[in-house]
Every structure is written in structure tokens, then in C-alpha cells.
Write a structure and sequence with these properties.
The complex is a heterodimer. Chain A has nine helices and 21 strands. Helices cover about 30% and strands about 25% of the residues of chain A. In chain A, helix 1 packs parallel to helix 6, helix 1 packs parallel to helix 9 and helix 2 crosses helix 9. Chain A is of the alpha+beta class. In chain B, the strands form six sheets. In chain B, strands 1, 2, 3, 4, 5, 6 and 19 form a seven-stranded mixed β-sheet that branches. The longest helix of chain B has 27 residues. Chain B is globular. Classes of the chains: A alpha+beta, B alpha/beta. At the A-B interface, helix 6, strand 13, helix 8 and strand 19 of A face helix 12 and strand 22 of B. Strand 19 of chain A pairs antiparallel with strand 22 of chain B, so a sheet runs across the interface.
């Protein structure tokens, strides 16, 4: 795909974060180009179970979660795209006494933040989920827990942004970002490895596992760490369970999609590193992941596993979103989020777009500003 | 938890695998021979299961004897033969995940021989998914393995030597063959490449035998023709054949209809690529040898140190070549595992290497005889299904192309092609051909979807049997995880 010579805003990274900024900006009528060194949606966004679970989120991000799930739900109206959204409600299970106590505490915190969530004892949880295994001793229920199918959402968001005039260009690794101090419309020259150059007045770093690298090009240090998330998909099956299922103690996220396949994830770690480019399955952790899943919903034992995969996910040291102005220049921005990035991206993306477009909005959500890592 | 350690793991118990196992054991290596079939022999030495065998046996006296010898070679305490077992993962140097339908376990092996054979190369054309359209390999399985005769009349169509074998075998068991339709039409190439073909040894006798059977039966033999469509409401009732003109296209105005209840399509074989791609073995494209071939050196070692690939699983060459390559790979894999080769083993290796050279000459001669420039993809219509698992049609792919989605990875994400039950085993070859066919730069190597474990679908319950140390869980699941 040919790159434009000029764009109002260049976004680096065509994952969930970059596309969530691109959509509102393109809708506002600005020209936007999203560059990705791989195909769009290649890493954390693609190696993601698509669980939009409120119950597993940290307390610090709960203020944004309703808004974000609402934005997921409204994608068809807002952008005319189908992202495989479903809102079956979610059950978060506990299988030991310690997990039970942890769950109670967490439900209390969520309630105090205004989240509609409630505890279920053994009988109640089984009534809602007769498919749960005998080791499940309690659970909590949130009817707003949802999912968006990551296997369709990526393409949908790319198509949506293109329909609004955005350029989404995979296979374009950024090699250099130069500041042209004298000019306002041509503030940055962004060079790609293949030799193209785009001139832009704003740059958004949404490069996920490569956000640190891109930040360095902009002269800012961003201390990101990288996880390698694993995911597994089963063959399609007649309906077995009808909720998004998560776990207090074991690492698990489990859902059955409308096509009957079950997506099993939760954040078990694969093997690999950004520097070597390898992202492989860890045999034993994969087995643990399957064991936890089969313990919670025994019936999935009878399904064939079709495929596993892994992708890099960038995590800030405090595992909170990173969002806002990057460094001293109010034309350089960043957005990234682990531990709920997929759920929160539509809200974070929309808020960042507002900040970029409207200087009066720039003093919001400062708790997520990358300035917190400034030396 | 202890993991069994062996010297050589051989994957596939066909011609190549059996001879590799025999040779490695003769050297004194501890061998595990894994096969996903219930019986050894692979496709070529396939044995009928006695209870449902109705046709007369097609195995020649010579092959029966050879097969007995191969089985003797693995009848030693050094070889542990695991039938009905699938290799679903290989990682590190080398830990192998095996699943037998009940449970999964791991073994460790110093060397690996992949002798996983080949599958039928399938080209989609209008009507190819109708019940009654089967592959040449499938037809051979029905006759040889199950003693079932396909419904007559049968049209045998495609390209290559396997077509003749399939047709002759159908005739031998008394099935009415309405026509044999071969795309290539270069009989003079037999003369032109006689110097190479002469190296075929026993292959030549076999070829003459098959041709004699077909000649005697007076079956119409259409050379330079191809099937352009298959018809039928619930199952196959007829096919249309048309001559192929110079530019490789079909002359549809001269199409004629042949009544058929079965169509056997034989487009040659293509190596099984799941394990080579799981391991990232280097490939090269050999259009006359089934497409993507695994690159091996004279030891049959692939680009990954310690992984040997032999037989049709590396490059299509038939049974004689498979037997020789299996022996070469078996000996070298044992040497790789640290076992010294005696003088007599060295000698037999030298003999095998010269046999290998001779058979390769024959192969290249045979390839010239069946060479053609047919544009099979010219037959596609918008309704033609490309991916059976996910019902992806040529029209659907074409629509994506118009939206700018052109690479295999983009098309996979957009249409789910290759994401179903077979994980692209049947359609990714077609997708690769169609995208390079369509792209602006056909020489540019395209990135194909990666193979990930499991190499074959396995039951989740199979994974629950392995005893593992308890997992190390992070204290705070939100914080960044510790990497290895």
C-alpha cells in the first residue's frame, strides 16, 4: 500500500490501541496514517482472548471500564463495524478457601467503585453455571462482562478506519523520527525501513512491545516490560457454557464464541523475547492452562484443541495504562495498556483523541500519564 | 516426573520410516517409531484389515517379501513401535509431545527422522466437494486398505504417474473405468528422457505392467485433457472434460460430458508439512515435486541440526527413493546421536548413496514425461469452495482482494481460510498458489500462516494425564511476569 506524503497524525502500531485512537481521529475529519512493522493486530491484540471482563480489572481502571465496554458495544453504530461483541455476563470462580476470601475482598472493592457485581455461593453459582466443575466453591457475577472476538475485531477496525479515510499500512517498520523544529504542519518526518517518509504534525506511539524502542527515537525513555501471552482455541462444539468465565487464583479466561469454538487464555506465559522475535508456546504452562480450564468447565475435556499461539504484550512496571503526552512536546503522544488493554482501549483511545484535538482536555487522566516514569 | 530418553525418534512408519528404524536399530540406537496409523506400512505397503477385505490383494510377491523384511528390521527390543500415536509438539533439542488418543506424554530424543509421507495435492474446481469425487490416494486406500470398490463408472483424471497406478488398480479389482484423463500430452518426452528413465530399475517393470493392464482393458485414454467440472445433485453423476490448449487453458467449446459415479482425481502428491513447519525447516519450491519441498543435505539432514527428513515427506519421489532415503537418514541419525558406524554400515551407506543418485535421475526423467503447463486455477468460479472447513469460496477471497487484502495472512484473518478443523492442511497450498498467482511480484516469497502446536488436533483430555510440578503463579497477577 502506498503511504501518503503527509498526514495530520501518524500512529505507530496498528493494534487495539493504535486503531482505537485512529477511529475517532479519522471520524473527526483529520488525516491519519497508522504504521505497523507487521500485519495489523499481530501481537497482544491478536494473542488475546477478547475477554471484556470488569471483574478481573484493577481498581485503578474501574472508572473507565463501563465507558469502554459501552464503546465496544456501540462500534456498529459509531463506525459501522462488526467486532464480534457479546455481553453474556461473566462469572469469576473461586476453588479454594483462600480464593474465596480474595474474591469477597475484590467484590467489595468493585462495589465501592460503583460496579454492579455480586457474590454467589456454591448453590447459586451452580444454578447459574450448571456446567461448572465440582471444585468451584463460589463465584461472583457481573452482568456487564462481555467479549469481543479478537479474530474478527482487528479486521473490522482496520476496515472501519479505512472507510473514514485513514491509511492503515502493515509491513512498515519505522526507522527514524525526525523533528523539524521550524515548521508546524510538518513537525515530524517519520521514515520507514523501506525508505518512505511521512510528514506529520502529531505522532502517537502505540507500538505495544516496541513502545520503548519508538520512545527512544523520540528521545524519551519509557520503561516497558514485555510478556508473551499464550492462547488456545478448540474445535467448534454445540453450546457448553454461556458466560465469560475467569478465575480468582488460577490464571484463566474462558469463553465460547458464537461459532462454537472455545477460546482459552488468561495470560499464561509463553517463551520468547522481542529482541529474538520468537514467541513460542511453553509446554508445561500450556498444560497448566488446559488443566485449570478443564477443572473449571469439565466438559471441554472432550473437545479437540486446534491451535495455540502467542504474542508480545507490553507492561508498564506498575501494570497501569500509559496514556497521554510523551515527554516535553505536546505533539507527541503515547497509548498502551496491559492487564485489560483490550477492554480499555476504546475508552483510552477516545480520550487520547480528545486530548490531541482539544488542548482543554489535556489535564485529565493524569494518573496514567507517562510522566510518572520521568526521571 | 521422568521423561524417557531415546537416541532416535522416527515419525511415520511407511517405507522411509521403517527402513530408517531398521538401520538405526542395526547400528544399536534406541529407537522410538511413532505412526498415526494403526498398522505399519504407510501408504505403499498398506495392509488390508482382514475383517472387511473383499477385493483380491494388490500387493505383489516382491513387495510382500520386502515388507516382511522391513518388519523384521524393527522386530528388536531396541525399537519401540507406537502405532495410533500422533506427534503434536516438538520443542527444544528435542522434546517431543506424543498423544495416542487417550493420553499425552513427552520423550526426549537426540535425533529426529521425519518420514511423515505425503498427501494428495488437491486443486479446487467446480464440483470438487461433491460426494463421489475422491483423490487417487483415497481410491488406493479404499481398494488396498479396506477392500471397498468405488461406485462405477469411474473417471480417473489428473496428471502424473499416480494416475496410472490408481486406474490400473481399479481395473485389476474389476471396477469399470469410463475414462482416464491425463493432462500432459508429451509422449515423445519418454524417448527424449530415455537416458534418465533407464535408471528406474524395478520402477520400469511396474510402469509397463500398469500400462499393459490399461491397454488390455481398452479404456479410453484422453491425453491432453482435463476435467473442468463435476456435476450431481446429492452426489456425483457426471463430469465435463475438455482439451487443454497450448497456453495451458481449457478449450471449453469442445467440452464433452462423461457419466460417472466416482471421479478419482490424481494431481500428484505434496509433502506433509505440519512438523517441518512447526520446526521451521527451510523449504524450497519444486513445482514438479509436489510444491514446497524440505531442503536436506546428503545425510538427509534438514536445516535444523539433528532433524532428518526422508521419503515423500521431504520431496516426492516414490517408494524406491523413500526406502533408500530412509536408510540414509536412519544411519546418519544414529551417528548424530553419538553411535559409531561400523565398516559394514559405512559400506552400505555408500551403496545407498549411489542408489539415491540413480533414482534421482529416474525421477527427473519421469517428471519431464508428465510435465505440463495447465492453468488449473482458470477453472475457478466465484462459487468454487477453496477452504472446506470454513466454507470459503473463491468469490469471497476475490472480494477481499478488491478491498486490498491480498497476502495469505490478511486473507486468513479476513475469511478464516485455513483456520478450521484441518488447520489449512488442504487449502493453504491452494491459497499460496492463488496469492502468488495474483500478486504483482510472483518471485517474492510470501509469509504463510505459522504452524503452531498441536501439529494435529488433540483432545484436551489427553493433556490432563501428564504429571507436572505445580505451576509457579505470580504473587500479583497484574504485575509484569518473570520471563525465562
Amino acid at each position: 500500500m502506498d503511504l501518503p506524503k503527509v498526514a495530520d497524525i501518524v500512529i505507530i502500531g496498528a493494534g487495539i490501541s493504535g486503531l482505537s485512537v485512529a477511529l475517532p481521529i479519522a471520524k473527526a475529519g483529520l488525516s491519519v496514517a497508522v504504521l505497523d512493522k507487521n500485519e495489523p493486530w499481530s501481537d497482544a491484540s491478536g494473542a488475546n482472548a477478547g475477554t471484556l471482563s470488569i471483574q478481573v480489572k484493577r481498581a485503578e481502571v474501574l472508572s473507565l471500564i463501563y465507558e469502554s465496554i459501552e464503546r465496544w458495544k456501540r462500534m456498529p453504530e459509531d463506525y459501522g463495524i462488526e467486532v464480534g461483541f457479546g455481553q453474556p455476563g461473566g462469572i469469576r470462580v473461586a476453588t479454594t478457601e483462600a480464593e474465596y476470601n480474595q474474591l469477597e475482598k475484590s467484590v467489595e472493592v468493585q462495589k465501592n467503585k460503583g460496579i454492579d457485581v455480586r457474590m454467589l455461593n456454591r448453590e447459586a453459582v451452580r444454578q447459574l453455571g450448571p456446567w461448572l466443575g465440582p471444585n468451584v466453591m463460589a463465584g461472583s457475577l457481573c452482568l456487564y462482562d462481555s467479549y469481543s472476538n479478537p479474530l474478527v475485531a482487528g479486521n473490522a477496525m482496520v476496515a472501519g478506519a479505512r472507510k473514514l479515510g485513514g491509511v492503515i499500512a502493515g509491513g512498515n517498520r519505522v526507522s527514524e523520527i525526525r523533528r523539524n523544529a521550524m515548521s508546524d504542519i510538518d513537525r515530524f518526518s517519520i521514515k520507514t525501513v523501506s525508505g518512505d517518509t511521512i510528514h506529520a504534525s502529531h505522532v502517537v506511539n502505540a507500538a505495544g512491545a516496541w513502545a520503548g524502542e519508538i520512545s527512544s527515537m523520540l528521545g524519551v525513555k519509557l520503561p516497558m516490560e514485555v510478556d508473551v501471552n499464550m492462547l488456545t482455541v478448540t474445535e467448534p462444539s454445540p453450546p457448553i457454557f454461556n458466560r465469560v468465565v475467569t478465575h480468582v487464583g488460577g490464571i484463566l479466561s474462558l469463553k465460547q464464541l458464537p461459532n462454537g469454538t472455545c477460546l482459552i487464555g488468561g495470560g499464561w506465559q509463553g517463551r520468547g523475547s522481542v529482541s529474538s522475535g520468537t514467541k513460542n508456546i511453553d509446554y508445561e504452562r500450556f498444560l497448566h492452562n488446559m488443566r485449570v480450564a478443564a477443572d473449571v468447565i469439565p466438559k471441554i475435556r472432550d473437545l479437540h484443541i486446534l491451535r495455540t499461539w502467542a504474542g508480545f504484550e507490553a507492561v508498564a512496571p506498575d501494570a497501569l495504562p500509559i496514556m497521554g503526552q510523551l515527554g516535553e512536546d505536546d505533539h507527541v503522544w503515547t497509548l498502551g495498556c496491559a492487564r485489560g488493554g483490550y477492554s480499555l482501549a476504546p475508552a483510552l483511545g477516545a480520550r487520547l483523541a480528545e486530548m490531541i484535538l482539544n488542548p482543554s482536555k489535556r489535564d485529565t487522566l493524569l494518573q496514567f500519564s507517562p510522566q510518572r516514569f520521568a526521571p | 516426573m521422568t521423561i524417557e530418553e531415546v537416541d532416535v525418534t522416527i515419525i511415520g512408519a511407511g517405507a522411509a520410516g521403517l527402513s530408517a528404524a531398521g538401520e538405526a536399530a542395526r547400528m544399536g540406537a534406541r529407537v522410538v517409531l511413532v505412526d498415526d496409523n494403526q498398522h505399519p506400512g504407510g501408504q505403499y505397503f498398506r495392509q488390508p484389515s482382514p475383517q472387511n477385505y473383499k477385493c483380491k490383494s494388490l500387493v505383489s510377491e516382491k513387495d510382500r517379501h520386502r515388507f516382511v523384511q522391513l518388519l523384521k528390521g524393527i522386530d528388536t527390543p531396541l525399537v519401540r513401535y507406537c502405532p495410533g500415536t500422533t506427534v503434536w509438539d516438538i520443542h527444544d533439542q528435542f522434546t517431543i509431545g506424543l498423544a495416542d488418543g487417550e493420553r499425552s506424554r513427552r520423550i526426549r530424543s537426540a535425533a529426529i527422522v521425519i518420514s511423515a509421507g505425503a498427501r494428495d495435492h488437491v486443486y479446487p474446481f467446480p464440483g470438487w466437494t461433491l460426494p463421489g469425487v475422491i483423490t487417487a490416494g483415497g481410491s488406493q486406500n479404499l481398494i488396498k486398505g479396506m477392500g471397498i470398490a468405488p461406485a462405477a463408472p469411474v473417471v480417473v483424471a489428473g496428471n502424473g504417474p499416480l494416475l496410472l497406478v490408481a486406474a490400473a488398480n481399479l481395473v485389476s479389482v474389476g471396477v469399470e473405468v469410463a475414462a482416464v484423463v491425463e493432462a500432459s500430452n508429451r509422449p515423445w518426452n519418454i524417448v527424449r528422457h530415455a537416458a534418465k528413465l533407464i535408471h528406474g530399475g524395478s520402477n520400469l517393470g511396474l510402469a509397463i505392467k500398469y500400462l499393459k493392464i490399461l491397454y488390455k482393458s481398452k479404456i479410453p485414454f484422453l491425453r491432453g485433457y482435463g476435467v473442468i467440472a463435476a456435476y450431481g445433485s446429492e452426489c456425483l453423476s457426471a463430469v465435463d472434460v475438455a482439451p487443454i490448449i497450448r497456453n495451458g487453458k481449457f478449450e471449453r467449446s469442445q467440452a464433452r460430458r462423461i457419466t460417472a459415479k466416482t471421479m478419482v482425481t490424481g494431481m500428484g502428491l505434496t509433502p506433509s508439512l505440519e512438523l517441518p513447519r512447526l520446526l521451521g525447516l527451510k523449504e524450497t519450491s519444486m513445482p514438479l515435486r509436489g510444491g514446497p519441498n524440505i531442503i536436506t543435505n546428503e545425510k538427509m539432514m534438514s536445516s535444523v541440526f539433528g532433524v532428518f527428513v526422508a521419503g515423500d515427506g521431504s520431496s516426492i519421489g516414490g517408494v524406491e527413493l523413500s526406502l533408500v532415503e530412509g536408510r540414509i537418514a536412519g544411519i546418519n541419525a544414529a551417528i548424530h546421536a553419538g553411535i559409531g558406524a561400523s565398516e559394514s554400515m559405512q559400506l552400505s551407506l555408500t551403496r545407498d548413496l549411489s542408489a539415491h543418485r540413480r533414482l534421482c535421475k529416474f525421477r527427473s526423467g519421469l517428471e519431464r514425461v508428465f510435465m505440463n503447463n495447465v492453468d488449473w486455477y482458470d477453472l475457478l468460479t466465484p462459487e468454487t469452495i477453496i477452504c472446506r472447513c470454513e466454507d470459503v469460496t473463491w468469490g469471497k477471497l476475490h472480494k477481499c482482494k478488491e478491498k486490498g487484502l491480498i497476502t495469505p495472512l490478511q486473507l486468513k484473518a479476513a475469511t478464516r481460510i485455513g483456520m478450521g478443523r484441518c488447520q489449512g492442511r488442504n487449502c493453504l497450498g491452494t491459497l499460496a498458489a492463488l496469492t502468488s498467482h495474483e500478486g504483482d511480484d510472483p518471485t517474492k516469497e510470501q509469509e504463510m500462516p505459522r504452524t503452531r502446536p498441536p501439529a494435529r488436533p488433540i483432545l484436551l483430555s489427553e493433556l490432563l494425564h501428564e504429571q507436572l510440578p505445580p505451576p509457579e503463579l505470580p504473587d500479583d497477577p497484574h504485575l509484569p511476569r518473570q520471563q525465562d
